[in-house]
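User: I'm writing a tutorial on reading structure tokens. Could you give me a worked example: one chain, its sequence, then its tokens, then a sentence or two explaining what the tokens reveal?
Assistant: Sure. Here is the example chain.
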Amino acid sequence: MYAWERRVPLVPDDVRNLISDGFSFVVEESKKRAFADEDYQEVGCEIVERISGCPLVIGLKEIPVDAFESETVYVFFSHTIKGQPANMPMLKRVLDLGCTVIDYERIVDEDGKRLIFFGNYAGYAGAIDTLWALGRRLASEGLETPFAALKQAAGYPSLDGAMEAVRSVGETIGRDGLPPEISPLVLGVAGYGNVSKGAQAILDLLPLEEVRPALLLDGSIQGDRSNGVPIRKAVFREEDTVLRLDPSAPFDLQEYYDHPERYRAAFERYLPKLDVLINCIYWEPKYPRLVTKDALRRLFEGDSPRLRVIGDISCDIEGGVESTVKATEPDDPVYVYLPAEDRVVSGVEGAGPVVMAVDILPSELPREASTYFSQILAGFVPAIAGADYAVDYAALDLPPELKRAVIAHRGELTPDYVYLTEHLDPIS
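And here are its predicted structure tokens:
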């Protein structure tokens, strides 16, 4: 179903430990998985052509509609909590069959912080792919830079190998500099969570100086290398990307979360100052967009705008970055958004920014990403497997962080997710 998806939710080493604790596993055979069937067989798993008859199925991405079985518990990324149209038939099928769904995305603590995620690996791969795209874009403009030597994350045998390649590029830049047309190169990172931390771990392998976003606006950063550092990095937080409608009151983060209508978008002022933007922000429609199509249209109406690449790691279609009009896959990861025409063209050439919008970025680092994810998930498996799902939702005995993640139980949407009914109505 997913040509590039090679990740697994549980790696063989963690499965071995769970088997030693008394659990048994059946694994569906796969020729493309990052861990071979034999790896699971060696730790005591039964390998089958197709999973059937198991009361609990632990998956990863969306499960094909025809694979669901009645009254079964499924744990996976359902990608339904925003009412995503593409996955509503899948959710309807789950409800019709009386199934229970636990969604990884909603396994959160009492403050709403996600407890199980691939976020940092999305950041690693996203930053590598963004720098790769930058190298290709600059080469198309006739600018030779060390970035042209980079491959996508999927082109390296390991994360260590990819990081060593970026480090080598950084050493070359530190020694030889960059073309004057792009010096200093300004990299913007929107967000500061796990995805951002992963992206910054890659960027920080380059010879750079971190600067406050305000310095991009006050003229402190000019087109020279007077301090000997060829690259600047600016990390944007909420207070940088929005402004309060009432300027007499200071920015308040909690107020912004609770009342985003009191704020307006303000990121456009930074766009002319950036060569690269890496978006790591979780976005919902109630919040102002980070980058709008209109902002890009205005930017590219001017002469030779600096912005060359948007690495949209968050990849919300026409969401926080409105020019992300479609998701891509690792074998065709980028396109150019043409603001004047509101359309995209493949490749890296055109009067608009290159958009890197791979929505399964951790799949480019499948073994490391799976191992990280599995170490966290394995700790939840005993509680998930030990619960009695025959009882009503109110009586379902799961730890709070897991119970919050139960989207559907025995064919009924749970109280926190009843709102999804309106998204299901058109297909009922």
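What the tokens reveal: The two ends are 25 Å apart (CA to CA). The longest helix spans residues 119-140.
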